[in-house]
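Model it.
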Amino acid sequence: MISLRVAVRFDLIDLRLFVQVAETASITHGAHQANMALASASARIRGMEETLGVPLLERGPRWVKLTPAGRALVHHAHVVLQQLERMRGELGKYALGLKGHVRLLSNTIAATEFLPAALADFLANHPNVDIELEERPSHDIVQAVVSGFADAGVVVDLVDLANLETFPFATDRLVLIAPRHHALGRRREIAFHDALDQEFVGLNSANALQNYLGQQAARAGRTLKLRVQLSGSDAICRMVEHGVGVAIIPETATRYRRRSALAVVRLTDAWAVRKLLLCVRDFDDLADHAKQLVEHLKAQDCAKRR
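Modeled.
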């Protein structure tokens, strides 16, 4: 364990740099995020290790990994930086030029379909708060919130929430889309396994939703017949309209195409209705501006409106 007497010899630039290096698993990427030259970042980290007398990182050709001392330092760095954010939030009530900063992570569906309007409303009413929104898979979000890399996250309820505090946020319903002239396009609802003989248009292999659909197909003893994989729902809709195949996407992604050549067919599988949750490590420990954002998102009541 690193003693506070030693840790306070590091300045805030050191602490922020080390957190960014730890998060990116790269001194190069951490230096870039810190707007610092690689040589300067490397020298600062070596200086921290010399001060402590222990290595903080295991170094590989293209990666770095935290040592036990490095993990302890990251923990203390988060405590210090979070306390600074709380101070900024509280002083923001009195100093209009001082802004609070909230880091919010979200899965793709919440980031694209539910959060934009909610965040726009919050930012309009809180000019002294900045929000950093980043898309990540739900399991990565949980780990980031647990470790203090993020203030809050929006995740699907299927992941292990690791004792985080959670609040209902929205309902994400998956539907099948097909051309209106397609045999499945004439149906109102369908079970997923009954569609697995079809050729599919899907999301890219790194997408969490696509992996989830692959898992459901495997449980049915089948595999998805993917003709093409794309980066977003809009591109998928266009491919389906042109008869390339059918697809499974969030229902919200079809809302602008109700009068198009697409048919939207509801999935009868229980897993097709997924709850989105807002998660934090400890609400009471959040800075005031982060608490305000969480309260605002809780009040959106997307889950009931969906």
